[in-house]
Amino acid sequence: MKDFKTLTLLNRLSQDVELQVKHESIGARDYIFVAAPVTRISSLIAKNSELFARQLLEHFALQTERFDLIELRNRTDSPLELLHWRFDWYGRIAMRSRSQVVISERRINTLMEVLSAKDAA
What we know:
Blueprint: E1 5-10, E2 16-26, E3 29-35, H1 44-59, E4 67-73, E5 81-90, E6 93-101, H2 105-115, H3 117-120
């Protein structure tokens, strides 16, 4: 993935996990796009979302109120799927997470524009 970098995070078992990550600041939002390696199960982010969110927040020195985590799931048998992760924060610690598949074509287009912002530059 163009302009993504490999970042090693710790999962809930304190094991290293490599994710493809891209950070874009647009307006009042900081978008963190993440993609797990194809060989990983699709629930990798779900099982570790709070822990990953905290590590990403620290790595990019972001504020919780500006933080948007977007997971890209790219399966060989279906089109790209975007999941928007939301968190309940206690200070700078994510306490609870939930994801929602982005289905609105307008929202998908907006996120894809944000994702390709640096690619066009």
